[in-house]
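User: Predict the complex with zinc ion.
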Amino acid sequence: MRLPSSLLVFASLLAAPWPASAALRVVTTTEGLAALAREVGGDRVVVTSLSRGTQDPHFVDANPMLAVKLRDADLLVDVGLELEIGWLPPLVNQSRNAAIQPGGAHRFTAASVIQVLDVPTGVVDRSRGDLHPGGNPHFLYDPRRGLQVARGIAAKLGELDPAGAAGYQSRAAAFTAQLEAAMARWKVQLAPLQGRKIFIHHRTLTYFLDWSGLLSAGEMEPRPGTPPSSPHLADLVALGRKEGIKACVVENYLDSKSDDLVARLIGGTVVRIPGDVGGDATATTYQAWIDEMVRRITAAVK
Ligand SMILES: [Zn+2]
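Assistant: Here is the predicted structure with zinc ion placed in the model:
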């Protein structure tokens, strides 16, 4: 009996739910990590992100549908440093996938391969708004650290899929060459702005500033995770006027009322940036995301 062609197609889909060449199902917590995994994984991996680039990565809804994605994951890539502590652990538990638990063979925590900034030295108390007791988790804003994470993912993929290891390494090398060329261009764009100060909202730009040579004059949040208060904003306005600060940089997923107010009172501008790959229509790849941040911030600070 001959089957109708549509049924044959359906039967073949059932037999091979993944592209024939795809060896690994990779789930990441953020779009930035997903973009890096795609760069080094190529067509041997199928990558899904649990959050969107338009979302605040600290506060993702732990929808049970996300646990279903984790159930079949061959690799979970997370940021770490407690960025996802409010939503990832329950999802991992619900997934019943033991290998992706912290420390599991199929888990890669990106923070493990980078040098961490903003590590608190005194008493840390999350209840007082210390959102990042282990240090600042927003390291993908620095392309040097982005490269380290990409190479770390490539190494992990090679461990889990030895037949593809050489391919992951060569893709990582190509990505390195491409991003290093972009970094050389960005360095030229940023050169006139060394030591210039901007206001930021949350401490998301710490690593970007460390790499770019710009400085933070202050944050809208008095402490990471604590909402802006009137006395704190009044201090920022006084400081901004005294130091001639021209830009308040804020991610487009954050409430920018305080940034708008401060910018107006200091005669500066609010620079809205995508908070991750996929954060807006311009941030289509990791390189495009960094490129857009550099472009918008330099335009405002010049
Ligand atoms: Zn944060």
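The chain has two domains: 18-114+141-183, 194-301.
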